[in-house]
């Protein structure tokens, strides 16, 4: 299924927004767009929400017919257990994470030990853990870790755009990770010359207008056949004003949903 993420509402729930959206408002907009999946990803207020507040979000999602997924950073057992509890309150069956967090940078051996310790609890709860491709960890190392752990509840959240910053070719990342993909982050990207023609800027673009080879991604991963959700994200820079940026964010959401639905 096609989904939206808190990253698709990045500026609308930021502190700069004149009418800041909370999770309930984002869920209502998601449902109004005919979207059935919403990933709460790297959303700081989540960790401070009480069980009652989390269950209220779950009720809103249920009433709207929206399935919830989660996203965080880090693989320490304590942290992943805390997000398993949050997933339980929300009824989420997928937690996306990254190897590194602001407070931890485990070695491959340390990450393997942590994952082996916590995955039985995820398995018992019926929750899948998806480690995302991104520039701080080579995709070869991420695949090696997933293979070493070898647990059916551990997979990869594939975002080909992220690894470009580490000079990895998106097609290579897709080819390497596709057997283990359990979640997709779909965002387009482009390089533009910086002022004075000194260097480049890597930033987001509406789907189909940048360098993401979406057709190749779908051909290799086969998300519909494998039941893999495609979660829309953006790299949308702040424009001349927050109001203009929010309007652009909504335009991109409309465009990107139409693009995926037309493929």
From TrEMBL:
Limits of the Xylose isomerase-like TIM barrel domain: 78-238
Highest taxon of source: Bacteria
Keywords: Carbohydrate metabolism, Isomerase
One annotated GO molecular function: isomerase activity
Keyword check for Isomerase: yes
The protein, known as: Sugar phosphate isomerase/epimerase
Biological source species: Subtercola frigoramans
